[in-house]
Amino acid sequence: MEGSEGRQSFCPPVAVAPPVIALDAEPERVDQPKRTVMSRPGNGTSGRGITLLANHLKVSVKCPDEIFYQYSVSITCDEKRDVNIKRIGRKIIDKIHETYSSEFAGKKFVYDGEKSLYTVGPLPRNKVEFTVVVEESSAKHASESPSDNGSNNHSSKRSKRSLHSKAFRVEINFAAKIPLKSISLALQGADAENVQDALRVLDIILRQQAANRGCLLVRQSFFHDDSRNFTDVGGGVMGCKGLHSSFRPTLDGLTLNMDVSTTMILSPGPVIDFLLANQNVKEPRYIDWARAKRMLKNLRVKAKHSNKEFKIIGLSERPCNQQLFSMKVKNGDGLDNGGETIEITVYEYFTKHRNIELSNSAYMPCLDVGKPKRPNYLPLELCYLVSLQRYTKVLSSVQRASLVEKSRQKPRERIKVITDAVRDYSYDDDPLLATCGVSIEKQLIQINGRVLEAPKLKAGNGEEVVPRNGRWNFNNKHLLTPARIERWAVVNFSARCDTSHLSRELISCGRTKGIHFERPHTLIEEDPQNRRAGPVIRVEKMFEEIIARLPGPPDFLLCVLPERKNSEIYGPWKKKSLTDLGIVTQCISPLKINDQYLTNVLLKINAKLGGTNSLLAMEHASYLPHIQETPTMILGMDVSHGSPGQSDIPSIAAVVGSLYWPLISKYRAVVRSQSPKLEIIESLYKPLPNGDDEGIMGELLLDFYRTCNGHKPAQIIVFRDGVSESQFSQVLNLELDQMIKAYKHLGEGDIPKFTLIVAQKNHHTKLFQASAPENVPPGTVVDTNIVHPRNNDFFMCAHAGMIGTTRPAHYHVLLDEIGFSPDVLQNLIHSLSYVYQRSTTATSIVAPVRYAHLAAQQFAQFVKFEDLSETSSGHGSVKSIGSTSVTELPRLHMNVSDSMFFC
After folding, report:
1. 23 in a domain, yes or no?
2. Do residues 845 and 809 lie in contact, with contact meaning Cβ atoms separated by under 8 Å?
3. Domain match, 187 and 71 both
4. Which parts of the sequence are annotated with region: Disordered (predicted)?
């Protein structure tokens, strides 16, 4: 097959330096969607039946013809600036109900927390304007404690409150009609308009109910102020258990999906106790007050002496016993004739004029709860952090581990929490829901599921491995194709580890698995003088030592790190080894060295060095329905984003592609950086001015051609992770179009058949056995009852949930040109959960997605720990996408480009 302009199509790749990225390169855009999500072709029948419960509650709607009316709300104040309705919106809505009920004919409203109101039936007029006077809480209490013009004159306090009242102009305009009937049409399988809007209104009604009860609202979850729901995770931070709720259209009708949810909050209580815990110090004298100021800003506190609430804007510049402020006092004649102004410390004011004893605030800064030009000081010991204040910073590894440990719930415990909440909180007891005739059942729905048979595996020497409960082992078994390791070394970055003992045990365990292990050429301990240097310098010094001691490039390096999680060495080490030198490495940080631990390490090492740990028995026998007779490529795609608040960190797109068809267990990854927080992959196809394609897809297509004896994929199965339902159309059109263009760029006329599947783990559906307390068995699949009424989706628990409650993977088949039957596709996806080479357990989501996720995360370390523009030795560059500059990731060295480096 000849390509355009005389090129040989799918010619083998040539090792050259990566081309320069065109600065004006833009991802393809599609004006009108050309493809829509496919409908369900039927249901699967394979596997044994099982009766399950799902955390969905049946919802009935007795008045489906009701219509919600949406009104946009515009609020401005005297300063002619837009107002954050989230800050004062509830006061505005309360004033509407209280003062202008006649305008709205006594109707009840729900408020979305942004700029919309909803009610059933229309208002008397399409446009209403009025003024509402609201007293701001910060101004209302400004004179309750020392300020630059404070006073202990009570009449003065009343006048100050009136001065800080503000008039807000409110304009309400009709925006749209949202018929409740659209939900009924969607339940019948129609592609109804407004269905998402109608469901959103129902969700908002439940949110407003929770808000009226004083709950903290976080998206579609709400959290009650109940200490029984709090769990301390250290650092002054607590996990707060709450409830997620969302209305879902399903095959069995409308349901309410209820689940246990967790968010992070600050530990309520004395501010000083919080600071001690947050900074992990025992006494106030050790507190870093600059750090404390950053942490406390914008937090809400309640004053013990007045029981009033304030927002912290900062700390005083001086300690409490030195911080002065001006205070007016009356003349001796008792007449209110202005009196005199004196300078007094905050400490003296509270101890002498308010008769409040302060035991430990004298030498600490005060909290400033006023305004930038009108400070208002409170002693620390009089202030308590208000409950239910979210903590949005990144948790430490210790905090994360503690949260996971303390948040686990067994299936029966989770069921009880949900059903108790439904019983206690009466979610359908709402005037608007009553108007629509909406009622919610109190019990979880019962559904039918199936348990698929686990696939058999092939190990070395033709031995068969039979998984039990989603697990297997290599006890007394060889790996299928073990690697040969001759020249290797162990390096230790100051970890407390006997590397000599570690290497002997690793060799012994490896030989029982068939791996040919020579003794390590050398054991290198980090020079103590380098330990205080930065991570990049430490890595450079270590590689200088490696090069000096080894006679040539090693086959493999075992790197011992001092920290198990988030080691600052990891990113620079991986970048240096994978992109600069092309050396396969394995990082470890062992707590206990035993056979199970060493086996898991060896599985990763063997895969990285080109070996194969196991294959599916049907894969080994070349019996894969729809795949063995037609060249088929399998892709896994994911995008990794920076932590919350890191808006300038590039996102990392990773795509893995299968190699050596008809195998489905071998993969290679291609990774690119892209615009921050962008979920849609923009570099699948990247045409350059010179006519070349620098995109991800073209690289993987060439790899497939090279490893499959010149075969080109006639079928491509794509597993896409991390996208929401609102992005399905973009995946179907933008990303798929890029893949097709990349294929055509190689000179091909016949386009492969595509099957496109989205794999989701970020959802709230849980499955429970109806007659047993344990988690559902591995292989459980549900494609009835709680699935979408029209679209082709299903839930699968491929793995064994040993701790907590199993979360199923939710698969959405957006497109299926290959034409899989439900049974064949579900069994293929189940089998792909058993080919993850670094594990001896079935994975909760298909291996290609797990590999893509790992590859994106590993390359994100390069951005996280190092400035590539200064230290990448010419491999990194900066590309511009629109107005955003993005650091281009370095490419893998050719020596490891085919390695499963992400294992």
Report:
1. no
2. yes
3. yes
4. 139-162
Same domain, 199 and 283: no
Q: Residues 38-61: what's their mean pLDDT?
A: 94
Binned at pLDDT 50, 70 and 90, residue 482 comes out as: very high
Structure tokens at 98: 């209280």
Q: What is the mean pLDDT of the chain?
A: 82
Q: In angstroms, what CA-CA distances link 141 with 190, 307, 361, 866?
A: 56, 11, 22, 48
Show the tokens assigned to 568: 């600052």
Question: Containing H/E element for 622?
Answer: none
> In this structure, what CATH number is given to the domain that contains residue 553?
3.40.50.2300
Residues 84 and 202 in one domain: yes
For the chain, what is the domain count? 3
Give the pLDDT band of residue 548 (cuts 50, 70, 90).
Answer: very high
In this structure, are 176 and 295 located in the same domain? no
The domain boundary residue, chosen from 180, 213, 246: 213
Contact between 663 and 615 (Cβ < 8 Å): yes
Residue 795 lies in a domain: no
pLDDT single digits (tens) 586-620 = 999 988 889 999 999 999 999 999 899 999 998 87
837 φ, ψ to 5°? -70, -15
Residue with tokens 């390359």: 859
Full strand arrangement of the beta sheet holding 340-345:
150-151, 324-329, 340-345
Would you place residue 352 in the very low, low, confident or very high pLDDT band (cuts 50, 70, 90)?
A: confident
**Helix, strand, or coil (residue 490):** strand
| Phi, psi (deg, nearest 5) at residue 426 | 45, 65
Q: At what angle do helices 696-707 and 736-745 cross, to 10 degrees?
A: 60
Q: How many Å apart are CA 529 and CA 537, to the nearest integer? A: 12
pLDDT digits (tens, 9 = 90+) for 431-450: 888 888 888 898 999 999 99
The reply to whether 69 and 201 lie within a common domain is yes
**From the centroid of its chain, how far is CA 425?**
29
Given a cut of 80, whether residue 426 has pLDDT beyond it is no
Query: For residue 783, what are its two tokens?
Result: 């494609």
The reply to whether 70 and 207 lie within a common domain is yes
Choose the final residue of a domain: 592, 611, 630.
611
Distances (CA, A) of 99 to 93, 102, 104, 323, 833: 10, 8, 10, 44, 61
| Tokens describing residue 462 | 């033709």
Selected residue with higher pLDDT from 846 and 221: 846
Question: Cβ(414)–Cβ(771) under 8 Å?
Answer: no
Axis crossing angle, helix 289-296 with helix 271-278, rounded to the nearest 10 = 110
Rounded to whole angstroms, the Cα distance separating 440 from 18 reads 59
Residue 354 is part of a domain; what is its CATH number?
Answer: 2.170.260.10
pLDDT of residue 621: 76
What share of residues in the chain are helix, strand, coil (percent, to 5)? 30, 30, 45
| Residue 248 is assigned to a structural domain of this protein | no
Q: Which residue type occupies 79? A: E
Q: Cα–Cα distance between 852 and 856 in angstroms, integer?
A: 6
Structural domain range at position 129: 63-137+164-213
Taking the whole predicted model, whether its pTM rises above 0.90 is answered as no
The answer to whether residues 206 and 101 belong to one domain is yes
Instruction: List the one residue out of 836, 888, 47 whose CA is nearest residue 454.
Output: 47
Spatial CB neighbours of 212, under 8 Å, sequence gap ≥ 6: none
pLDDT at 901: 54
- Reduced 3-state DSSP string for 152-212: CCHHHHHHHHHHCEEEEEEEEEEEEEEECHHHHHHHCCCCCCCHHHHHHHHHHHHHHHHHH
Indicate whether 279 belongs to any domain. yes
Residue 12: count other Cβ atoms within 10 Å of its Cβ: 10
Q: Are 258 and 208 in contact (CB under 8 A)?
A: no
Tens of pLDDT, residues 399-420: 888 888 888 889 999 999 999 8
What is the SS3 assignment for 390? strand
307 and 194 inside one domain = no
> Does residue 663 sit in helix, strand or coil?
coil
